[in-house]
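On clarity, I found the account of how folds are encoded harder to follow than it need be. An entry of this sort, consisting of the sequence and the corresponding backbone structure tokens, reads as follows:
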Amino acid sequence: MHPIAPNLRQGRATIRKVGERWRAEVRKRGVSASENFRTKAEATRWAAEREAEIEDGRVGKVPRRTLRQAFERYEETETSKKRGWRAEGIRIAKFKATIPFIDKPLADITSDEWSAWRDSLAAGSVDRKPLAPGSIARDFNVIRAMYRIALDEWGWLKVNVLTRVKSPAPPPGKERVMSPKEVKALCAALGYTDGAPTTQSQRVALGLLFALETGMRAGEIFGLRASNVDNKNRVAHLPLTKNGQARNVPLSRRAIEILELSAGGELAFGPSASSADALYRKYRPKELGDITFHASRHTAATRLGSSGKLTPFELCRMFGWTDMKMALRYFNATAADIAAKLD
């Protein structure tokens, strides 16, 4: 057992070593706060900042709400407004069932507790598999969003301890680009070679070809209504996209030809997004198991970006990206591809 070092008084603050960490405790004007740090310098700096905040009136009593209550309010007021409310609701239900300090007052939860929980997710347990870094990062995206609201709007917090908790590094972006041979093999597996489709799986193949022309997501393609396509101006209108905004997608002549071939009725391509996903997975050859439908978006971005037909800004507008960094993520030309253009 580690000894506890003698207290080091810093004005009204107490700095003491507990085990391998330094604990700062502040008591001033009826306000108490404490936190653990790796070094004495960090603890001293935090204590000074907290004392200054209390002195300036920026810190006072906050409602004694638990983490569970915070998640419940966030789900009711914020999650319910999102397009992906169902998935986020499932994630929050998991939090309420598994976070060991879920019934602890929100303002009393320390960064050490969040760090320990993060590490437990990565390590796994007897009855739970380890979570991948990307999954843990997505968990913390929701938790951080809730903390920001609790701090800025609800007044349930006076400090956000998550600023000292690192999320796992996200996995590298997928760089899978389909070759023409692979596209042909996928279409053949879905039963399509050319002409008008006669089966739902063939309509999925046409949707894949349309994706390669437009860079649209599977949900956007198989949710596209014929009434939202302007054939004359070659534009597909998407009233609601993944980021919650509408988008107009320019269509190539080949994309218009594919739409005319499909003629799926009210839905331009026939099957729903969930049915299309199931059919794609069912008929995809085993040797092409690493090619997701979403790889078509990477392929389209790489092809259009390499063609020189569109400026980077036009590519972002077409794909619905608000950050130029997304173009770099999806533009997956190899160094060899780029080298071939230098001569």
